[in-house]
Amino acid sequence: MEDKNSCNEDSDEEVDNTSHAESSLMLKVCRKSLIESKMNLEVQHEDPRSAVSSVKSFEELNLEPRILQGIYATGFKRPSKIQGTALPLLLAEPPQNLIAQSQSGTGKTVAFVVAMLSRVDTKLNYPQVLCMLPTYELAIQTAEVIAQIAWLRLDIRLILAVSGELVDFGENLKEHIVVGTPGTILDWGLKLRVIDLKKIRIFILDEADVMISEGHRDISIRIHKELSSKCQMLFFSATYDKEIMSFAQFIISKANLIRLPREQESLSNVRQHYVRCRSIEEKLQAVQNVFQISTGQAIIFCHTRKTAAWLAEKMHANGYPVAMLTGDLMVGQRLKVLDYFRSGLRKMLITTNVLARGIDVEDVTVVINFDLPIDGKGNADCETYLHRIGRTGRFGKNGIALNIIDSEKAMNVCRTIEDHYKKPIKELKLNNFDEITKSEY
Ligand SMILES: Nc1ncnc2c1ncn2[C@@H]1O[C@H](COP(=O)(O)OP(=O)(O)OP(=O)(O)O)[C@@H](O)[C@H]1O
């Protein structure tokens, strides 16, 4: 079974490691609507006697009328699950801290935007809200959401703290909301001293898992240390691994928690299979087999760009039209490929982890892991697996995930994932893929 072509053996520099933040931006740009999650969120109140409960309408939140109108004018009729659960907590008095997890596209940004707008006091002409994100583009996206919902609140002023925006040393900002990236916010707060961090009332970390992992961790902590103990701290992300979650709870000592319970993380309407292949040619065969039996669209995940390119070329040569999307394409080019795939002109999309998070294409019924997801140390990457197979089975539809196993190592990864989510991954034989269509859900 050990195959020297095994894709997971490729060298690290070929791995398509597009950053979480970059993928997240892509998703935001592409996403056309809310993803309504069927999953229940688990809420852990910091104070167990807390009487805060979730709401089903925006009226119940007693929002300032122009903010409520702004929400309706944006086209939002009722709160999504994360909004209905988080907003009563976010708006409660005295202010409470929150670490929130909800899948990508479920309305987290809108939740914290409504909260920040509700907390601004326009009689005070200095920054009261600080919202930090990992990239320039994400900061712009968030500022746009703020502008949309606050279109009747022209009295609320916002400034983008991103590279290229110039401010004068010591000249205090008059804007109420600062949205920006860590380096610029650090400069403005500690070097140029144009923001008095002690006066910030609400501090939001979006993509919080990225903001407190290596890379941004030091700056986030330095800024956090400057804030007043009364400042409301809010962390939002689609995923937190165990270490990051403990670290988040360490930074925000008294935090309410909203998250997906582990057992709900695995999508119950996705049937999971694996097939053993002895060579890369057999792996190709497995993909072609799926092409022949499936009527819907499929996304195929490879570990490296090189493997993705190899597979796309072989599929083309064998007469199967496929689309390919990898991290070397610019955001604009990626969107074009996605639109092309969405239009149905291509049945299969070959990609890498660049597309693992959040993208929704309604007709995707099959996800193939040409290579199982592994982390930098070669261990099973259960979170990425969940994100990948989450590309199918959306909106409560049934989906199929097929894992191609090319080595004992890959088999172990597959077993680890099965154990982790406690959902069976059943074997399929390469010469009998019809089983897929026969199995019951
Ligand atoms: N209550 C709502 N009703 C209808 N659409 C909504 C609602 N809330 C948000 N949306 C829309 O749903 C989409 C996703 O929302 P949003 O960007 O807030 O999700 P998110 O959870 O922050 O996503 P990500 O994890 O990618 O940051 C956006 O297009 C947004 O306009």
From TrEMBL:
Superkingdom of source: Eukaryota
Q motif (motif): residue ranges: 56-84
SMART domains to which the protein is assigned, alphabetical: DEXDc (SM00487), HELICc (SM00490)
Ranges of residues in domain Helicase ATP-binding: 89-258
Keyword S-adenosyl-L-methionine set for record: no
GO biological process, one term: regulation of gene expression
GO molecular function, one term: RNA binding
UniProt KW Nucleotide-binding keyword: yes
PANTHER family reported in the protein's UniProt record: ATP-DEPENDENT RNA HELICASE DBP3
UniProt-recorded name of the protein: RNA helicase
Source organism of the structure: Glossina austeni
